[in-house]
Design a protein that fits this description.
The protein is an alpha+beta fold and 150 residues long. It contains four helices and six strands, in the order H-E-E-H-E-E-H-E-E-H. The protein is globular, with a radius of gyration of 15 Å.
């Protein structure tokens, strides 16, 4: 694992939770927030954005990766947190009984960013009352990435 301390984990999960409240999810009502932690301590977070043409919807993780890349971040990804659930009356997202895992497309996008910096970031997902932690390589074994094109 990445050796994250409890403060890093809390900060990262909180950033994902905060982002989830900004989701645009009028169709599913399911809000997802993702937060990426870089070696310099920076956190880049984003929420899911749905579209009436469902295939054009964007996952929180994909938005966070795009945001990080647009900020010039090409290395140093050490961890990410993903939180999802239905918002309550106050707009706060309450994680469900199962953790929300990055979809296949997002796993590939995360792998690409991680591969640029030769890291295997820790993925932290939140469920009601629990945290699941694992390396990205466990979610996407034998990944295709930039090295395959050399």
């Amino acid at each position: 694992m990445s050796g994250l301390d409890d403060i890093d984990i809390v900060r990262l999960v909180q950033a994902a939770l905060t982002s989830s409240t900004l989701a645009y999810a009028p169709y599913s009502g399911f809000h997802v927030g993702a937060a990426l932690l870089f070696a310099d301590g920076a956190v880049v977070s984003a929420a899911n954005v749905e579209n009436a043409s469902y295939g054009l919807s964007l996952c929180a993780e994909a938005n966070a990766v795009a945001k990080a890349m647009n900020e010039g971040r090409r290395s140093g990804l050490i961890a990410l947190a993903v939180v999802g659930g239905k918002p309550d009356a106050d707009g706060e997202v309450a994680p469900g009984p199962e953790p929300v895992m990055p979809c296949g497309r997002c796993r590939q996008m995360l792998h690409e960013l991680a591969a640029l910096g030769v890291t295997d970031p820790e993925v932290i997902t939140v469920a009601r009352g629990s945290l699941l932690r694992m390396p990205l390589s466990a979610l996407l074994p034998h990944a295709f990435g930039p090295a395959n094109l050399a």
